[in-house]
Specification:
2 helices, mainly alpha
């Protein structure tokens, strides 16, 4: 989870820096925009990472339940005579 936060922060810093630099802002403004976008992108990546992990764990639990149900379900069919 920490790695996603750091990746998001670095990615956000780079994006904020690049866009602010392309607008030809002053250096303090460029740094401010880069820091703000790093913070917001880090939070977004942390949220997405948690949602992704939750989805994976839910899928694993569902798959185990399906396997357990298939294991204990009767496999023979009854026929009418």
């Amino acid at each position: 989870m920490k790695s996603l936060l750091l990746i998001g922060g670095l990615l956000g810093f780079g994006i904020g820096f690049a866009f602010s630099w392309m607008k030809e802002n002053a250096w303090p403004s460029i740094l401010w925009h880069a820091c703000l976008s790093a913070y917001l992108t880090g939070l977004l990546m942390r949220w997405w990472g948690r949602a992704w992990i939750k989805g994976l764990s839910d899928a694993t639990i569902e798959r185990r339940a399906q396997l357990a149900a298939a294991r204990f379900a009767p496999t023979h069919k009854t026929t009418k005579s």
